[in-house]
Design a protein that fits this description.
alpha/beta; Four Helix Bundle (Hemerythrin (Met), subunit A); Rossmann fold; 2 domains; 12 helices; 18 strands; globular; binds 5-S-methyl-1-O-phosphono-5-thio-D-ribulose
Length: 358
């Protein structure tokens, strides 16, 4: 997608050095900074500190982390150690485990001298696949927006939560991919961007949309239901960190409340996900998905810009009150209209058939 008219991705490989450069998302939207990651340890830190974030991007970055580790020591021991360390960085997005398992499976098949080159090539392939997958999600989701346009003959209003745009993937994003596709095709779309406390990933969504020229309005999380009641939302599209085979959707905290409000107002609610986000092993999403409990400081503090233009952390709440900070919630399949994937759109209970899973 574009920044100031120039095509950019959230991560790119430095082929000669076999390192990657990322957009450091902890600096956005106040500054656009790049950071070169040169080791698996730095990759782990970047994922943990949310310099890279969003399920698909976490997976891609971890794959590069494994590839970097293989450049130094391609033994089974180092492979296992690296994968184990990276696996614990963020627990909820299944794309992380998916990418690590895929890398480990491929690497262990090879003799040690061949592993460094192959691992690098596979990490590049995972990154390229992410772009193609998300572009396909965009094409498939575009049909929903086109249908709404044909139905209403006016601007289509889409509500999204958190950031599931190109910053959360290598390019395109998932929830925002159909929106970019519609905008690029000349359709009149407008996006309600929810703030998404406590990390305010809505700021990233607003920044992305602004840079690409997509009309949008930033709202606090609590306003989403109000705009649905006003008839100002035609469709809700969110991303996901893990989806069960029966269509339960784990996504950023607050997603469940949007799905409830959408159902109450007869508004279609879709999750847009690559197949790497579907956890085919899950039987009971409510019990089995590990919901990340994040630092209390994310709630006690707020990052913003001072009147001098400096990025600062401000305190909202002292230590006298306890805080709880679950990073994600689970929207049960019964509240989900459909799942937009690279292979097409399925009803929540139609995912297994779409991907030919028994
Ligand atoms: O905690 P984050 O910012 O990594 O959470 C991101 C989300 O919840 C996204 O909606 C999800 O990962 C899908 S990103 C395409």
């Amino acid at each position: 997608m574009k920044i100031k008219g120039r095509s950019r991705t959230s991560i790119w490989a430095n082929e000669g050095r076999r390192t990657v450069t990322i957009i450091d998302q902890t600096l956005l939207p106040f500054a656009l900074g790049e950071l070169e990651l040169t080791s698996a340890a730095q990759v782990g830190e970047a994922i943990r500190a949310m310099r890279v974030r969003g399920a698909p991007l976490i997976g891609v970055t971890a794959a590069y982390g494994v590839a970097m580790a293989m450049q130094l020591d391609s033994t089974d021991g180092n492979l296992q150690e690296t994968c184990a360390a990276l696996r614990t960085t963020r627990p909820t997005a299944v794309n992380l485990a998916w990418a690590l398992d895929r890398m480990a499976r491929l690497i262990t098949r090879l003799p040690e001298p061949d592993r460094a080159d192959a691992a690098w090539a596979w990490a590049n392939a995972i990154a390229a696949e992410d772009v193609a997958t998300n572009e396909a999600i965009g094409r498939n989701g575009l049909k929903l927006i086109e249908d709404l346009h044909q139905q209403h003959h006016r601007k289509i209003n889409i509500l999204t939560h958190c950031n599931a745009g190109w910053l959360a993937a290598v390019d395109w994003g998932t929830a925002l991919a159909p929106i970019y596709a519609a905008h690029d095709a000349g359709m009149d779309v407008h996006v309600w961007v929810e703030e998404t406390r406590p990390r305010n990933q809505g700021l990233l969504t607003a920044w992305e949309l602004r840079e690409h020229g997509v009309p949008h309005t930033y709202i606090v999380d609590n306003a989403g239901g109000y705009f649905m009641q006003q008839g100002d939302v035609d469709i809700v599209i969110v991303g996901a960190d893990r989806v069960s085979r029966t269509g339960d959707v784990a996504n950023k905290i607050g997603t469940y409340l949007k799905a409830l409000a959408a159902r109450d107002n007869g508004i279609p609610f879709y999750a847009a996900v690559p197949s790497s986000t579907i956890d085919w092993q899950l039987h009971d999403a409510m019990k089995e998905i590990d919901i990340e409990e994040r630092s209390a400081d994310e709630i006690r503090m707020l990052r913003g810009q001072s009147s001098e233009g400096l990025t600062r952390d401000f305190r909202l709440l002292d230590d006298a009150s306890a805080v709880a900070n679950p990073g994600f919630d689970i929207t049960p399949a019964r509240l989900v209209t459909g799942i937009i994937t690279e292979a097409g759109i399925a009803a929540p209970d139609g995912l297994a058939a779409l991907f030919h899973k028994n």
